[in-house]
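Give me the 3D structure for Calcium-transporting ATPase 1.
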Amino acid sequence: MVRSNNYALQHKILQAPHHYVTVIKSKYEDNSTPERIEHMPTPTTKDLTLLTPSDLAADFDTDLTTGLTTNAAAKRRQEDGPNQLTAAKKPSLWRQIGHHLSDITSLILLFAVALSAYLALTTDSDWTKTIVIGSIVILNVAIALYQEHSAEKALAALKAMTVQTVTVVREGKTQTIAAADLVRGDLMLLKAGDAVAADARLIHSQDLETDEAVLTGESSAVAKSAAPLTEVPDDLGDAVNRLFSGTAITSGKASAIVTATGMQTELGKIASLLNQTQKQATPLAKRLNALGKRLSLVAILGGALTMLLSMLYHQETLTESLMLGVSLAIAAVPETLPVIVTLSLAHGVQKMAKRHAIIRQVTAVETIGNVNVIASDKTGTLTQNQMTVTHFWPFREALQKVTDQPLSTNQQQFLTYLGLATNARLTKQGEPDIGDATELAIVRLLAHYGLNRDDLETRYPRIAESPFSSDKKTMATLHKTPDGHFLAIIKGAADRIAFSNDHWHEEATAIHDQMTAQALRVLAAGYQQFENDPGADWETQLTAVQPSGLIGLIDPPRPEVPAAIQAAKDAGIITVMITGDHLVTATAIAKDIGILDHGQRAITGHDLSQMSDEALAADILQIRVFARTTPTDKIRIVKAWQQQQAVVAMTGDGVNDAPALKAADAGIAMGITGTDVAKNAADMVLTDDNFATIIDAVAQGRTVYQNILKAVEFLISVNFAQIFTMLIAVLVGWGAIMTPEQLLIVNVLADGIPGFFLSRELAEPGIMRLKPIPKKASIFTSGLGKRVAVRTTTYVGLILGVYALGRFGLSANQPIVGMTMLFLTLAIGSMLDIFPIKTRGRLNRAAFTVNPILTGSLLGTITLILLLATVAPLQQVFRLAPLNLGQWLIVLAVIWLPMLVVEGYKRRQHRDELAAWQQSELIGGAE
Ligand code: ATP
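Predicted structure for Calcium-transporting ATPase 1 (927 residues):
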């Protein structure tokens, strides 16, 4: 807690009409009404807004220039703990168990337990059924808990990979620390794009604006300034000299003293509400949940129908009929499917992380697999962001290549001016250089010719700077000249500088075109002299800029990008380039890497601004390059594609990219060059900023989606087969041809356990040759519905036939023999055809070896089934009879039939698709 010794002030705070309204808003809830709560500031806290910086520093025992000492910081870290919001308390184990027991499947099973217990108590039947079904309930819940726990652990480990860092000054040294290590009194340095990691009071600020929507619900930027206030502000929004944890710096820079960390921050005070943010289900998971609910309804209705039929038709007792009804309900519910979905998603997230794509929203795993348009930034994502100046053109001279020739005076002056308007800095060997790639290229050029930025700045001290922005595409600095005058220098995109020279335009255009045609980025530089200090609005006076010259920089494409773009094309995905660079430069690179083909268009941000939304939506299919754009153009591009029903992935790194990242179906932020703001707005963060990583992520996303569909196909058709078989059996008067225990063994063990490992299936050959799945496609499209129907029919016919043969054909009306043969055929047969289901291509040897854990689990469960059918005590428990050799031979012969039918049908159905699935090598390598 902040120490307070100003009682008058404290009194004032207690009197003040505090009425802080807080709005919780998260990416998930963008379309919903934000939740409002009202909360009061801690009344004993001295109001920090009124203090002068030095009083504040005294209060927090820190120094305004050197910050805390390392020891003081360590001591406070120990006293206050890490600067983290305490995670929401996990529900207790009992609550989790309760949650699992309250779902429809468990309720049906629990009803069966109660019913069999009642039967055991009131009739002469024993407790076996109660114990077996009870054990399956426990096993089912235990598996669900375990799998959920491991999925959660995997996701938590991922979270730790995206640690936020903060720049602080400690012991006079500027350093980067983990946000968790920030303590009260730390001197933080902040710039546009940074997320604010703790509450703080500003000490200095320059053109500072923040986005405080998270706390106040105010969506427009809030202008901040360091000056002490004269009155206690009424609410957080008015506390303009304070910064709040969870908000973001949208422009300018600042230094500030940390006043509260962790749960003591304003965000911490409402953290319990933040913790309640609902987990989001993916669209596929939502559709599967809906399917699960419908199946449960079928289960209950089917169960009731069977019960009625058996009572009216066969005059069974109420309890017997009830038990039959329950068995059918059990048969119809795919008990393990929800856990398989969670597992597949978690597995996909982990695999993507290993390949440099960190998923921030689990829903993105699925979305990224379905994208059909990727709108990518050029610099750093498609190109290497390793800029080098290859050419320079001092105005009125010839175009020069960078060589070892010494510079003329004119050339030297040009480079001097360029260097003065640059912020990058070369550091000592071994340490990374500081600055963006364009500017580093400039200071390296200077160094090549023996010029040093520090020397230049001593001669021409900088007195003001107007920083570079992607909107302006220029940067300007104001200097004092050695003779006491003033010199403004501006550098940036040539078309954004107001040059005042009659000859410049014509000459420069020719040189500019020559360089851009070679895919070079071109920067112009110019200057304007002032007799006297032009004052604070000096930049607006830059209307008569004298040209200095042009430079051309090369930024080669990343070597893996052309292949990735081709892979995207094969996968039915269009890649679009969005860049701030010049149209000709962008076009040249786009052609080189395969983005821009014959008949496709490249336009500029200006062209875009001339197009109506309708015209853009109509033309968007042909446009592959958007040059000289500003970040706000990105939103229009996303929306135009979305109007064409596209699923759009959009990359971004800057603060201004955040809205487009949110608007895109999959927002992708750059991990290296990206700002905190962009990362927080994104669904996925690339730790290597590489376009090729997006294509890898698409393959992984598609694999997850396919694996879930495979699990659906594998499990649901057996459920359907069980329902129809039971209904038909009751109708023809055979009664219950499977017991609830047997049904559960098939669903939970025989199919359930191998089914889990479907989530670990690798990407199949050809996964990137499929067309993306449309946004609203049903899960039963692309043949899945038909395959489920064929498999269901096969099982219904086969197991009814086997049952009839066992009961009537081979013995004189022995239901238990029929039941045993049916059980073995269904349990083992439905396991074997996992292979044709999991292999979308032609079944081959690899299908049995690529996912050894699945094959292993299958062998394990087959052994278990055989034990149930052969070990006498187990036979009794599960109502199975010993079979003779002939009966065994029949079972062993027919268990292969479903596999053959599924494989045969698949080959017929997908003659063309199969070829595609076969074409490429396995993606993903071994587990
Ligand atoms: P992309 O959108 O492909 O990632 P980018 O983000 O690098 O490209 P911008 O940074 O907006 O695009 O740059 C656009 C133009 O601004 C460049 O073509 C160049 O003329 C100019 N420019 C870039 N960096 C600077 C800088 N540091 N100072 C002045 N001008 C610059």
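The radius of gyration is 35 Å. Let me know if you want a second pass.
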